[in-house]
Amino acid sequence: MSLPAQIPLDLGHRTAMGGEDFLVAPSNADAVAWLDRWPSWPAPALTVYGPAGCGKTHLAQVWRARSRAVLANGAALDSADLPALLAPANAVVVDMADAVAGRPAREEALFHLYNLAREQQGHLLLLSRRAPARWRVRLADLRSRIKGAPAVEVQPPDDALLAAVLVKLFADRQLRPGMEVITYLLARMERSLDFARRLVAALDHASLAAHRGVTVPLAREVLVELQQAGAGKPG
Questions:
Q1: Phi and psi at residue 163, in whole multiples of 5°?
Q2: pLDDT of residue 168 exceeding 70
Q3: Per-residue pLDDT averaged across 135-139, rounded?
Q4: Does residue 14 lie within any of the structural domains?
Q5: Within the chain, where are the H helices?
Q6: In the prediction, which pLDDT does 191 show?
Q7: 50 and 120 within one domain
Q8: CATH number of the domain enclosing 74
Q9: Domain residues for 120?
């Protein structure tokens, strides 16, 4: 696998919570464009969906930094004080929003939260691994609300995005491995941004412990350890 030298430089940046940067790439550009349209969404809610590790949570952090939205979990929505969720900023991020499907109390809660947001001209950002059409919601009124709201997919990160993320994560820790290390990792690591963060943290720790730089042999050792621990795919 060969990587163009410009890969880490070609992606746009967004500031997120905690001073982190968010890298804009083809895999997430549509979702970024929708979040940029806020608060001029055509409906009170926007669903952002995609596989684990694709960057949905980080996107939500970017939006929360702008909207001051409260974070809620779909699996606990039935026990939440819905007016209190909207009260601070009139905006809520509902993580695991598809967890309401098939649970009458949770479906009712999301339905009422949606209606409250609409009445108060607020907004909901719904995060899910599955597209809303696959949620199997039983409550017809909620199903129609979700169907009428926009939904945008975030694709798994491609090599360009993963390379840029690895370079940035290493730089955040004052590490400058050669591109041969990046190339080696890309060919063998789990295709997720979450795993990239864990991998770089593990490499940083191993480098400090062994008093050695981040090299391909060290990358091989750390990947084997993570894979044996079940954190990454077999290489």
A1: -65, -45
A2: yes
A3: 96
A4: no
A5: 29-37, 56-67, 82-86, 104-119, 140-148, 159-172, 179-188, 193-210, 216-228
A6: 87
A7: yes
A8: 3.40.50.300
A9: 28-153
Work out whether strand 70-73 and strand 12-15 pair parallel, antiparallel, or are unpaired: unpaired
CB 36 within 8 A of CB 29: no
d(CA 66, CA 62): 7
Contact call for residues 122 and 90 (beta carbons, < 8 A)? yes
- For residues 120 and 169, membership in a common domain is answered with no
* Distance from C-alpha of 134 to C-alpha of 227, rounded to nearest angstrom: 31
C-alpha–C-alpha distance, residues 77 and 130, integer Å: 18
**Quick one: 194 exposed, middle or buried, by C-beta within 10 A (0-12, 13-18, 19+)?**
middle
Q: pLDDT tens digits for 174-187?
A: 999 999 999 999 99
Specify whether the CB–CB gap between 72 and 106 falls below 8 A: no
Residue 166, in any domain of the structure:
yes
Q: Has residue 72 got a pLDDT over 80?
A: yes
Q: Beta partners for 47?
A: 126, 151
- Please report where in the chains the tokens 């400058």 appear, as a residue: 176
| Residues 6 or more apart in contact with residue 159 via CB below 8 angstroms | 1, 3, 7, 186
- Does residue 106 sit in the same domain as residue 212? no
Q: Place 7 in a pLDDT band, splitting at 50, 70 and 90.
A: very low
Q: How far apart are CA 201 and CA 186, in angstroms?
A: 16
